[in-house]
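Write out the 3D structure for:
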Amino acid sequence: RMETDCNPMELPNNKGFEEDSDYRDFEGTDVKDMRLEAEAVVNDVLFAVSNMFVSKTLPCAEDVAYINVETRERNRYCLELTEAGLRVVAYDFDQTDDRLQTPYHETVYSLLDSLSPAYREVFGNALLQRLEALKKDSQS
């Protein structure tokens, strides 16, 4: 994957390009990106939950991916990942419930923080351990 120094916030609004169907699935680049984003989310917090993986049943599209998560309290959720953030779309793996009107969270951290006290504890402890390690490094 090529890295660029371009900040997407500095680009003019290029909505017209995305909506032009000739370009939408150009080599599947957009589709791959949301799935990669979902994989990164999973890798980031997997240590603090019982189970978490990108759904293979629900379709990934250029603007959406689904992530299944089981908290340490054994509660199961299906999360939707879009440009707007993450939100719970069902209370089981590989499901979506259109009647659910759950709020979007900007980060997976705040979403899991709201769902799982055990996640909060494990994540907080990991953070403390990292800070302690940094402190030791800076003292040596």
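Helices lie at 15-19, 21-24, 29-45, 108-115, 117-139.
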